[in-house]
Amino acid sequence: MKSMNIFIVIAFGLFSCDQDQARMDEVATTKILTTKTIEIDQQIDGQLVSRSVLIQAPPVSDATAKYPLVFAFHGRGGNNKYWVNTLRQFTDAGVFIGIYPQGHLNAWNLGTEPSTADDVAFVNTIVETLLTYTNVDSEKIFALGSSNGAGMVNTLAAKTPHFKAIAPVASQLIASIDISTQTKPVSIFQINGAKDNVIPIEGGERFGHSFFSAHESVRRWAMQFGCDLTPSETILLGNTSLVFSGCSDQIEVQYLRVENAEHNISAAYPQLWQHIWTFFSSR
């Protein structure tokens, strides 16, 4: 009987060791994305340039959770630090992890900017890097951008499969962005200020680009994704909202015209960022 008890103790000890080893292996393979700055090296004009990406994660991360990612792209002349406080209410609440890349020469290369960087390749590398972390939800990656950054998110939607939804703010499609080659339907929420005198809502030539009107821009997205081209129209807090439904893959195309807004739309419409996240999170 004594020898049997010894065997049981030894067997239990071995089982306990196996459990401990399994937990250690799990910890070793867990790679958690936290608040930090990462650097992505890229060749630009024959020079190796280190480009920063700010990561803003919840202060207390749940290692077992998978967080949506929201990329945010600054306007021309801006920088990625702008987004830290702008979107902090969401990252601090644990709603998503914010990903804020820095444009080379403080701009996104849409063809006429001072930067000649391949920004699509830059973002592709960022996404590949982020997907190595275990607390990232690969099915819920979103992008918003303001002004020149809005042009960047339009470009990314046209040229990459990464994003479930985008929100271009204070800009619209330009003629050089070819969305006819888009293969992956993506939900669009475009927001423009009716009094914008930087990128006019009616379109035209500006900054070396040929802008479609805001309405034509969103109609082109809707047409590309097979939506009903007769949108439902509502008035939201005095602003005009258009929703194109019946699109392929159950995506949706929306347009919000903020009547009293200039180029800085959030000044006239403080609900802007919450409205965008509500759109993203419903996808």
Describe this protein with a few key phrases.
globular; 31% helix; 12 strands; 2 domains; alpha/beta; 283 residues; 10-stranded mixed sheet; Rossmann fold; two-stranded antiparallel ribbon
Q: How is the secondary structure organized here?
A:
Elements: H1 2-29, E1 36-44, E2 47-56, E3 67-73, H2 82-86, H3 88-92, E4 97-101, H4 119-130, E5 136-146, H5 148-159, E6 165-169, E7 187-193, E8 204-206, E9 209-211, H6 214-224, E10 232-236, E11 239-244, E12 253-258, H7 265-268, H8 272-281
Parallel strand pairs: 3-4, 3-5, 5-6, 6-7, 7-12
Antiparallel strand pairs: 1-2, 2-4, 8-9, 10-11, 11-12
Give a written overview of the molecule:
- This protein has 283 residues and is of the alpha/beta class.
- The protein has two domains: 1-30; 33-281, Rossmann fold.
- 31% of the residues lie in helices and 27% in strands.
- It contains eight helices and twelve strands.
- The protein has helices at 2-29, 82-86, 88-92, 119-130, 148-159, 214-224, 265-268, 272-281; strands at residues 36-44, 47-56, 67-73, 97-101, 136-146, 165-169, 187-193, 204-206, 209-211, 232-236, 239-244, 253-258.
- The strands form two sheets. The protein has a ten-stranded mixed sheet with strand order 1-2-4-3-5-6-7-12-11-10, with helices on both faces.
- The radius of gyration is 23 Å and the shape is globular.
Summarize the structure.
The protein has 283 residues and is α/β, with parallel strands linked by helices. The protein has helices at residues 2-29, 82-86, 88-92, 119-130, 148-159, 214-224, 265-268, 272-281, and strands at residues 36-44, 47-56, 67-73, 97-101, 136-146, 165-169, 187-193, 204-206, 209-211, 232-236, 239-244, 253-258.
